[in-house]
Amino acid sequence: IFKELNLLNKKLLKTKEKILKNTQKNKKQSDKISLKNTQLASVISAISHELKNPLSVIDLSLEMLKDENLKDEKLKNELLEKISRQSLKLNALTHKLNFVFNLNHEALQMQEFDLFTLCEKIVKNPGFERVILRGKSTRVKADEFLIEQVIINLLSNALKYSQKEVILIAQDQKISVLDFGKGIEKNQLKFITKKFYKIDTKSNNSFGLGLFLVKKILSIHKSYLEISSTVSQGSKFSFKLH
Q1: Average pLDDT over residues 144-157
Q2: Which of 95, 119, 186, 223 is most buried (most C-beta within 10 Å)?
Q3: Burial of 138 (0-12, 13-18, 19+ CB in 10 A)
Q4: Reduced to 3 states, what is the DSSP secondary structure of residue 71?
């Protein structure tokens, strides 16, 4: 009898251990789901906020156009132009969100190319007249299109916050973008690569996705963004490829 009781006790202990393991596993899965739901709610809230302004402008403009007493043709054209601009903004936001959420390792099209040559091509684009390119030929293996988006985002940000020239350096498989703008407060540095975060909350032309997109692209290239900044002097954004 004692032998049977001992065996039964061992079986019960094993069953207890198995139940505990399953409980812990279920708790971990539940915590993961809870975290994902929280993150999803945060993203939905941020997207709703981004959509609110252009939709409000479109709604108000349409209401004004419905007014039968509105005879001013110039004002009508201005309202139609507003609707057109905000529609383009909504399309751009949709495209950017789709691009961000579908980025993954499998989507990479790795190839060898010259980083300096890519920068030469970028700075010839309209809007980059204040960019001064420095460096030398340096070859890397990466997704050229995505790295181009990274550099364009960094330059666009630098130009937005600086009235002076912006310096772009490409050498030794590394990119650095230096601006001489107002700089970034230390307490903001850890947030600027987060989704929908804006340094300038007054700006309606930004979705707060630029640096988040940069961070995500670099992450799938097994790289990261280095940021240093001094208030009233400027900022430096750098990353290295292989």
Answers
A1: 90
A2: 119
A3: middle
A4: coil
Residues of the chain with CATH 1.10.287: 2-101
SS3 140: strand
Tally of CA atoms within 13 A in the half-sphere of 165 that contains its CB: 9
Q: Which residue spans of the chain are classified as CATH 3.30.565.10?
A: 109-240
Name the packing angle between helices 2-66 and 73-101 (round to 10°). Answer: 160
Contacts of 154 (CB under 8 A, 6+ apart): 175, 177, 214, 237
Amino acid at 216: K
Q: How far apart are CA 209 and CA 199, in angstroms?
A: 12
Which fold would CATH assign to domain 109-240? Heat Shock Protein 90 (3.30.565)
CATH architecture of 2-101: Orthogonal Bundle (1.10)
Higher pLDDT, 157 or 34: 157
Please tell me the least confidently modeled range out of 2-16, 27-41, 48-62, 155-169: 27-41
